[in-house]
Structure formats: structure tokens, C-alpha cells
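Team,

Forwarding the record for the chain on the shared tracking sheet. I've put the sequence and predicted structure together so nobody has to dig through attachments.
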Amino acid sequence: MKSHLYLLQLDLSQLPFKFALLSFISAFVVTLICIPPIIHLINRFRLYDVPNARKLHSAPIPTMGGIAIMAGMMMSLFLWFPFSNELALVAFFFSVAVLFGLGILDDLKDLSARYKFIIQAGLAALIALSGIRITSFEGLLGIGELPLAAQYSFTIIAIVGITNAFNLIDGIDGLAGGIGFMSLMTLGFFLTLSGDANTALIAFALAGGILAFLYFNFNPAKIFMGDTGSLLLGFVTAVLCVRLLQVNQLVEGQALPNAPVFVLGIVLIPVFDTLRVFATRMWKGNSPFVADRTHIHHLLTNQGFSHGFAAKLICFFHGFVLMEVYWLRSVRQEWVLLILFLFMLLSTLLLKKMGSILKRTGSSFAVQPQQVIHE
């Protein structure tokens, strides 16, 4: 037995992802420690997410779990990230701080969508000005290098769009966190392979915080991340997606020959769902910003499916998309784009009809009475 103990010893200096692992574990531990006292304080001051006609939980639940996620991420980065006065880094962390404050205010005061949109657009413009921009479509739809004005336009639209897509999909226990965790781990891995291990630490640190948060967020949730967490998650994911597009072009023998559609796959479910819901509302003559219960998770919960089942199934679809865009990396990008679009259309139709499909087979799998759903 003693002779085999050396198998448990790891020489951390030989691990290619050693700082990624340290960042992930540090953020996980700090967030895990922070959440119980945050729940206690929120209960004490009654800072709840109160149920209404649109929300799916039936009792007030503590919100602003994003505070613990932010604490875990930043403590981890203070320990392991090589900070500098580089303009892009200053702009990024300043934007994260502003967005974090915006999320807290929104959780407390329920700010108007227009106000939030203006601030997000300003922060996205700051990120683009700092040098983190979408500079090329790498041949997708026949488009290569973009003019400078198009670089700024696409970057701002992408960052604001992805930020709000994650905010809007945060509707049931574990969904936004589950999708975000898988997306961040994927971004961290491929940023490292593309030679930007420092930026990858941000992805791994936030992923560690999200995983710890999910321990308290899976149904029945003890706390929600709130806009404090979902805006942070969406914004960081968006900026890292843009960064991956940039650095992928610089590495010899690109890690991702289909980087534009691969990055789209990382955020496909939140983005597609947001576009589908907005288009459906406008088709019916309604404002795209008037909230309803038509998001992808509502397609399941409206039929009586449990939060756990809905979140796990949608996360399974997300994982399949991530593998699919990597498997198809040698296929022409336009074909992959078409495949992703058709997959999302078929998946949406399947989710919408799943209740009737299970009834025909006589199964009651994952179905529960609507009144006992918590969020």
C-alpha cells in the first residue's frame, strides 16, 4: 500500500492547466463559503425575489447570489491572475465592476430595461475601444476582415446581445448556471489552447464560482443569482467569446478552424431563444420587451415538467451543441450554421410537444403538478 502512495502525488508545475485548476478551485471554495452568510443577510433584510404572474416560483426566495459568485471570481483572480495596466484589462475589470453594481441596483430597484441597455452598450463600446473586437468572420458567408466601423458595431451588438440573452434565460433553477458553467469551461480550454492562458483564468475562475453557486441553486433553490449574477455571467462570457475569436487567428495551425460558428455554438441556446421569443412577440403585435412565459424553459414548465428535468434536458442539448460544433470543425462553416439552426428549430418543437409525446407513451416522467413549482 505504501509503495503506491506516490500515485497520489501531483507535481503541479508539470500540469499545463495548473493555474487554471488553482483559479477554479479558489473561486469554488470562496463562493461556497460566501453563500450561506449571504442567504442569512438576505433573509434578515428580506431582499427576496417575490413571485408574480410571470415568475415560476411560488414563495419568496433570496436573490443576489451573484455577489458570492463575484467574490469567488475576484478573490481567485487576485491570487492567480497576472494583473497589469494594459488598457484591455483595465477596461474589462472596470466594466465588470460597473455591471456588478448595475445588477445589484436592478435586483433591489427593478431598473428599466432602457436604462440597463444604455449602460451595457456603453460598456461594450469601452471594451471595443480597448482593443477586444470582432475583427474578422474568417470566411463565414464569404466575409473576411471587417472594416473598423463594422468591427465596433458587431462587437457592441454581440456583447449586449449575449449579456441580455443569459439574463433572460435565467428563469428556472440551475439553467443559466448550468449553461454558463459549460460555456466558460469550453472558453477557458480553447483560450488556453490558442495561447491566451491568462485570459482563460477569468473563464475558469468564474466557472468555479458558478459551480459552487449551483450547489445552492438546483431545485429547490435556496438562492437565485439574480441580475447581479446573470448580467455578470453573460457579459464575461460575451467578452471571452470575442477574445477567443481574436486569439484564434493568431495561433499557428488554428485550434478552431471554424471559430465564428464554434463561438456561436457556445452561446447558441440563450441567443437563439432570445431571438425566437422576440420574433414571436413582434409577430403577434406585441413589444419584444414585454415579459411573458414563452422562453425555452417555459415550453417545459408550462406542461408541468419539473425544474430539475427542464434544466438538465436543456443543458444536455447545450452540451450536445458544444460537441457538435467541434466535431464539425472541418465542415464548411455555412453548413454548420444551417445544421445548428435546424437543430434548434427541431429541439424547440420537441420541447413544445414533449408533454403530449409522453402522454401517448403513458409516461409521467419528470411531470409534477404546476402549483408546487418553486421558481
